[in-house]
Amino acid sequence: MLFHMSDIYRQPDSKNLLVRSHAAVWHPCSQMKHHENFPLLPIARGSGVWLYGYDDNRYLDAVSSWWVNLFGHCNPRINAAITDQLGKLEHVMLAGFTHEPVVQLSERLGELAPEGLGHCFYASDGASATEIALKMSAHYWRNSGKPGKTQFISLENSYHGETLGALSVTDVALFRDAYGALIRQQATVPSPDWRKAAAGESSEDYALRCAAALEQHLQQYHQQLAAFIIEPLVQGAAGMAMHAPVYLQRARQLCDEYGVHLIADEIAVGMGRTGTLFACEQANITPDFLCLSKGITGGYLPLSVVMTRDEIYQAFYADETARGFLHSHSYTGNPLACRAALATLDIFAQDNVLAANRDKAAYMNEISRPLREHRAVHDWRNTGMIWAFEAESPHRDFAQRCFALALENELLLRPIGKTVYFMPPYTISKEEMGLLVSRTLQVIDQLS
Question: Torsions phi, psi of 240, nearest 5?
Fold first, then answer.
C-alpha cells in the first residue's frame, strides 16, 4: 500500500501553500520528486510539543523539529526575551563591536561548561561550528610551529555537518559520496556503538576495544594529526548509536599523550539532551573544543558556538594579523539569538530541568515496556532524553511509511532507515509520553 497524504490537506489555504512551496522552495535533505507521492506538510502554528496544520490536525513533535526544540513551540519566556531585545538592538557586526547579550552568554557558558573552556567563537549553525573547530585546530598547530599537523580523524558512521570541511569528517555515504571529489577525505576509527559489541561483551569493554584501535591510529599518524572529532555518547545520524562514557575518558588520555586535539561535537547532544547539560560531563573530561548549536536557543534562532581553552586562544593573540583566527560570519553573535539562548539557560536554572528530565526519562522507560517487547523491536536504547530502537519490517521504504502512518496517528516521527527514535521537547507531559508510546506501538504493529 502506498500512503498518500493529500487527504490531510482539505483547506484551500493549505493546498495553495503546498503548490507554492513545491514550486518555489527547494527543501533540504529531500528528493523533491518524492513529494509527488508524499506531500509536504503545511504547518500553521505550534504550541508546546504540538504542531498544527491548517485544518487543525495536530502532530506531537517527537523529534523536536530536527533536534532543536527544547522547551516547546512558542514558549512564552523565550518569546518575551526576543521581543524585549527587538526594542533594543536587532543586530550589529561582531568584528570591532560588542553588545551585552553576547558578553552575558559567553560568561554564562564559561561558568557552565567543563572547566577551562573560557573563550567563545560564534557562528550560525552546527556545520559552521565544525568548520571553525577544524580550522582553529589546524591554525593553532601552524602558529605553534607544527604546520604539518593538518589531518583529522573521526568515528565510523560519524556526522558533523554538510559543508565541505564538515563533510571531510562525516562518514555517512548518503551525504559524503556525491561530493567526494570536492572534499579532502579523512580517516575514521571504529565506532564504540555498543550494538556492535560481541556476544557477552559489555558496552564498556567494547568501548575500550575501540579505544585501542584509536590508540594504534594515533601512534602511527599523530605527527600529521591536528584533531580527533567525536559526537560524545550518541552518534545521531548513525541511527542514535550510543556508547559508554569510558571511551571519551580514554580518548582524552590518548589525545593528551600523542599531542592531538579533542573536538567534542555536542551540536545535537549538548544542552541537556544526554541527561547532563553537556555530554562530556558524564566522562568528567574537558575537550579542547566544544561545539554547540541546535538547542542552544531553544530551537528559535540560528546560533552556534565553539568554546575553547586559553592556551589555544593565546596562540592566536599577536601583533600579526595572519596569526589571528581569520574566520567570520555576518550574523556572528546576533543579539536576538543570544537573548534566546540566555532565556533558554534561564529556564534550565529556574525549572531545575535536568532533574525533571531524569524523572521523565525513568517514566518513559517504564511505560514503554510494551513497545520494547514488541516482536518487531530490537536494540532498544536510551541516553537522557533520547530513545531509539530498530524496527523489523518487510518494507524497503519503511522510513517513509512510518512517517506517513505516524502523521495519521498524530505523531511526527522521522526514522533514520529502520531506526525509530524519540527526541521530544523537554516540556512533554506524562500524558503526552503515553500517547507517543501507544501510537508508535500501533504504527510498528501495522508496519511489521
Answer: 55, 50
Using the 3D structure, point to which of 284, 318, 350 is the last residue of a domain. 350
Q: Tell me how far CA of residue 239 lies from CA of 66, 112, 166, in angstroms.
A: 14, 29, 19
Q: Are residues 301 and 335 in the same domain?
A: yes
Helix, strand, coil fractions of the chain, as percent rounded to 5: 45, 15, 40
In angstroms, rounded to a whole number, what is the distance separating the alpha carbons of residues 311 and 290?
14
Q: Is 270 in contact with 278 (CB distance < 8 Å)?
A: yes
What does the alpha-carbon distance between residue 360 and residue 354 come to, in Å, rounded to a whole number? 10
Q: What is the pLDDT of residues 134-167, one digit of tens each?
A: 999 999 999 999 999 999 999 999 999 999 999 9
Q: Looking at the structure, do residues 364 and 336 belong to the same domain, yes or no?
A: no
| Residues constituting the chain | 448
* Residue entry with cell 575500550: 208
Query: What is the domain range of residue 386?
Result: 6-74+353-447
Residue with cell 514503554: 368
Backbone angles phi, psi at 119, to 5 degrees: -125, 130
